[in-house]
C-alpha cells in the first residue's frame, strides 16, 4: 500500500470516529481507534493517561522527551455530524468533521515518526480537551513537555503557512444579579440586569486595542426569567485575545473594574487568562532550523505567520520550551462546514517533520 493510500485509509478511520469535546463515550471510542492506528504505524502501543476524566494517549520512546509532537483529537463538531457529512475524498482533498483541525495532524505525526531510524527521545501526546481550553489536560502537557528541546504542533496551517506566534486567550463568565419586581405594578422596585448590561457592554468594548492587537468581545448573553418581571439575573461570556502578557493582564484588571451602572445590580467575574501568548521568539530558532532542512532537501521554504487562535502550543511556549505550531494539514475552513485537508501535502509535511525531528536529535 502506498503512503498516500495508507494515510487516506487511516484518516478515514479516525475522522469517522466522532469526538466532540464533551461526549465521554465518543471520546473513548475515538481514542481506541487512534490507539489501534498509531500502534500499526509505530509498532508500539501507547500509554493511556486519564486526566480528570479526559482520556489521552502517549507514545514515548527512550528515557526522556527531547522532541514532543503535541496533538489533540477532540473536535468542535456535535455528535451525529458524520451521518450527514461523512468522510470523503475528492481528488486530493479529504473532507469530514475534524479532518483539518486536527485529525490529519495525528496521522501526519504517526507517518513522521514511523520513518525515523532513531526514535529515542521522541514522544507523541494526543489529548482530548484542546477545543474547550485544555483545563483538564494542561498539567499532563506541562509535565510531558517540560525540559524538552522542542515541541512541534501539527495543528492545521494558515493557507499552508506555519503559525509562528499565537495570541493568548482569556475567557470570563460574568454574572449580574439585580432585584426582581412586577414589570407592570411596581417596576420601580426592581433593579434591571438588562439595563445594567446595556451600560456595561459598551464599556467592555472600550478595552479593545487594535493597534496592540487586542480584541475583547462579548460572545453570549442570557437574561431574565419572564416577560412580566424586571430581570434580576443575567450571564454573559467574554472572549479576549492579546499578543502580549502585559495586554492580557491589562484587560483582566480593567474588565473587573467596570461597574454595573445600575444601583442594586452586582457583577461577579469567573475566569480570566486561559493561556499565555505563544510569542514569535519561542518559534524563531525552530523555524530557522526547518528552513535549513528545507534547503538541504530542495524543498520550498514554508512561510510563517501570526495566528489569532490559541492551541496547546501556547502552554508549552509558556514553559520556555521552543514551540513550532501549525505544522499540520494544508487545507482550509477550520471549525467550519466543508473543512478539508490535502492528502498529498499531508504526506509531504510528514517527510519534512521527520527530517526536522532527526536533525534535532542528531545535532544537539
Report on this model:
The structure is a single chain. This protein is α/β, with parallel strands linked by helices and 364 residues long. It folds into two domains: 3-166 and 277-363, Aminopeptidase (3-Layer(aba) Sandwich), CATH 3.40.630.10; 168-273, Alpha-Beta Plaits. Helices cover 35% and strands 24% of the residues. It has ten helices and 16 strands. The protein has helices at residues 3-16, 24-42, 81-84, 99-114, 138-145, 193-205, 245-255, 284-297, 312-318, 343-363; strands spanning 47-51, 54-60, 67-72, 88-90, 93-95, 122-127, 150-152, 162-166, 168-177, 215-223, 233-242, 266-273, 304-307, 323-324, 331-332, 340-342. The strands form four sheets. It has a six-stranded mixed β-sheet, with helices on both faces. Helix 1 crosses helix 4 and helix 2 packs parallel to helix 4. It is elongated. The protein starts with a helix and ends with a helix.
Biggest sheet strand order reads 1-2-6-3-7-14
- List unreliable stretches of 5+ residues: none
CATH class categorisation of the largest domain? Alpha Beta
User: Which class of secondary structure composition applies to the elements?
Assistant: alpha/beta
Principal-axes geometry comes out as elongated
The helix/strand order is HHEEEHEEHEHEEEHEEHEHEHEEEH
Helix amount, in percent? 25-40%
Tally of individual helices: 10
The number of domains is 2
Largest sheet: 6 strands, mixed
Intertermini distance: 35 Å
CATH topology of the largest domain: Aminopeptidase
Please name the fourth-level CATH homologous superfamily of the largest domain: Zn peptidases
CATH architecture of the largest domain: 3-Layer(aba) Sandwich
Global mean pLDDT: 96
- Give the percentage of residues in beta strands: 15-25%
Number of strands: 16
**What gyration radius follows from the Cα positions, in whole Å?**
23 Å
